[in-house]
Amino acid sequence: MGFSKDFLWGGASAANQCEGGIEEGGRGLANVDVCPAGEDRSAVITGHKKMLRMDGYHKYPAAEAVDFYHRFREDIRLFGEMGFKVYRMSIAWTRIFPNGDEETPREEGLRFYEDVFKECQKYGIQPLVTISHFDCPVYLIEQYGGWRNRKMIDFYLRLCQTLFTRYKDYVTNWLTFNEINMILHAPFMGAGLCFEEGEDEEKVKYQAAHHELVASALATKLAHEVNPENKVGCMFAAGSAYPYSCKPEDVWEALQTDQENYFFVDVQARGYYPSYAVKRLERKGVFPQMQPEDQEILRRYPVDFISFSYYNSRCIAASEEQEKAEGNLFQSAKNPYLKFSDWGWPIDPLGLRITLNEIYDRYQKPMFVVENGLGAVDCPDGEGYVEDDYRIDYLREHIRAMRAAVEEDGVELMGYTSWAPIDLISAGTGEMKKRYGFVYVDKQEDGSGTLDRIKKKSFYWYQKVIKTNGEEL
Ligand code: BG6
Fold this sequence. Notes:
Blueprint: E1 8-12, H1 15-18, H2 41-45, H3 68-82, E2 86-90, H4 93-96, H5 107-122, E3 126-132, H6 138-144, H7 151-166, E4 173-177, H8 187-191, H9 201-226, E5 231-237, E6 241-243, H10 248-270, H11 275-284, H12 294-300, E7 305-309, E8 314-316, E9 324-325, E10 332-333, E11 339-340, E12 346-347, H13 349-363, E13 367-371, H14 389-407, E14 413-419, E15 439-441, E16 453-455, H15 457-467
Parallel strand pairs: 1-2, 1-14, 2-3, 3-4, 4-5, 5-7, 6-8, 7-13, 13-14
Antiparallel strand pairs: 9-10, 11-12, 15-16
Helix pairs in contact: 3-5, 7-9, 9-12, 13-14
Bound molecules: 6-O-phosphono-beta-D-glucopyranose.
């Protein structure tokens, strides 16, 4: 019993949070490059402050990140040493198409990822590729307004066609958009949206979401055409919404929060806009404009599997008075029964089992947990060694809950990639000190450090977890 023999253990990262090298290989500028660390970050990632160029005043953590661009061989060797079966990573769109609307891809960018895949192959690691992990060329934002514009579908599909064809021999598992529901909470980061004064933001967000949903369906079609072996997944930020109390108003509010997130997966996995969404969006006057063929496209090309990130459950109250807790990019009410991370995120391993059950009940498709982990402050000793028992505890409990969902509840699970195998830049805050890795990177908040990689205690622990296929935790 337990996890299947071919269960895919590994780790997950995103190009902009680990690669750096943003001026190398003719790469163009992306939305994620111009998200500064510090107090303006929130206004920028939510589309309320338009800063499409780097200035001399802000710090831009993606510029160097942890230099995976130059150190990927060493990093992948470490993943191999831990026994990874899969490495989830993303493509920087602007390495392949610097502006985003070119006809021809850049060979240098394509070669970089080919080298990464070849390196993975050496260690028997299969890549799981997120085509867009919070990634949109700045040029497409300036010229077309990002995903609010339907033309984005064609540009994105050109990228997909290029990737599917070129990497046919290396990659068969793809994710179309990272945390697609984040478009509602971080629309600049998720979809390159900058809002104009007085515009109906909700309307723009759902229009952009519709374009991404159609693009995702067409990418699925294309992936299957290029290689029938290809499997395509959607990816959303999950975490069940618990009612704050059994008061019906709290329950109703929690249900609506879940629906807001499941809306995306409902479309991607079932192939149509669910009735609650149609009604709600129409009522608010934000139902997106569609082309006559869209409904057929969504219906014909649903995803093969459902992937998601799980960091925490959410607790929802009808009244605004409850004390708030942080969480993956948005707040919810503070759950009095849970402990919290250094960044105030709830820690709820059983919530992962609940979420797995909920998703499986809803879709009956294979699932993949593609992000889960603990962002914490690590204190290395004189040798740079970190004894991160807190991280091991977090992961152990979550893997245990996941095993129960598989073993006792019978959910279908393809694999687990923890966020992140190596320390990297935080998406929410742009901080370096918020560390998730099994491998410590000697880079400090002020940018100083050697960038050396040092194995943490959790490195050896995860190695054993993989070796025993999750039996020894
Ligand atoms: C998810 C993203 O939102 O959570 C990752 O897909 C991100 O890109 C991760 O890094 C953890 O969030 P944070 O804000 O701690 O980096």
